[in-house]
Specification:
397 residues; seven-stranded mixed beta sheet; 15% strand; alpha/beta; single chain; disordered C terminus; globular
Amino acid sequence: MKYSPGRHFLQIPGPTNTPLPILAAVAKPTIDHRGPEFAELGLNVLKRIRAVFKTSRPVIIYPTSGTGAWEAALVNTLSSGDRILMFETGWFSTLWAKMTKALGLEPEIISGDWHTGVDAGVIEARLRADKQHAIKAVAVVHNETSTGVASDIAAVRKAIDNAKHPALLLVDTISSLASIDYRHDEWGVDVTVGGSQKGLMLPPGLAFNAISEKAIEASKNAKLPRSFLGWDEMLASNASGFFPYTPSTNLLQGLRVALDLLEEEGLDEVFARHDRAALAIRRAVEQWGFEIQCRNASEFSSSLTAVRLPEGYSADALRSEVLQRANMSLGNGLGPLADRVFRIGHLGDFSNASILGTLAGVELGLKARGIPYGRGGVDAAADILLGNSSPIAQAAE
């Protein structure tokens, strides 16, 4: 590709922009992963990452992607032939279900419409009907990256409890961790899956399992094959700050700085910043006259917004136009949403100027492609960012 001057706007829903301090930490010389300097680093990040998940329990860090953390959640807690209840909220929930089949599990998938999140009432009814407790786990995606829909995990926990069912609760937070408020302990989650490349602002390459005591007990009887992903050796080595095999040492150096940045800003302000940006984006989309893929205001994602173009217009052609004219990448539609939606990522390291610049880039592409849209989207977003319309108004949308 021809060189394009200026900063590239990476506005996909992950991987996200990596701040310079994190890049500098990752670029430091590699250290001995069996030496005392690494032990200090390991103990530091293993302890501090717990606050991001809001847990007092262990968080395991793998040198892999979020997909690897999905697999770890399954193979450490379940056995061949176990039934797992899953809710279809979009592309990534279906991929997780596909993995369960490959591992010899039996997924029972509750169909969804790709516009709404998990229906806790349906889960409760299904678990009440499972008198023999054949279902061993419930697996849901907190924030569906393909649709921009955030599900109510506390409601899912309540549904399991109301049904008096012993199933484990497994939750994917890959595109919500450190961007949307999440509470592993309070919501009674047994395994939370996360990744480094989104709200944590790191390059891809680290993945996480936050685990409950119930999950650890389940792992003692789980029969699916596991070696590299096994929790037992990890927990034993992590106690002294080490790992049972070579970890991603430089990414862990970056993680320490990422945690510094999150702590300096404060998680509550991180979440509020994401909420404001998401509301500003939605106001612009409304001004343009386009449909948001997520239909329920209570389920709007603060990490990304999936935008539907009017019939007859190509979302991929718009994305290509924006890349060429504005040096900006937008997320593509996945599965049945291919070429129907474009996704604006607003998570991780961004400022008000990033949000307004992103919207201006989209408008440039819309104008170049001759796609009819209502003018004033950037102004509508600026009003939100200036505080002229409170994020509390989100609840009334």
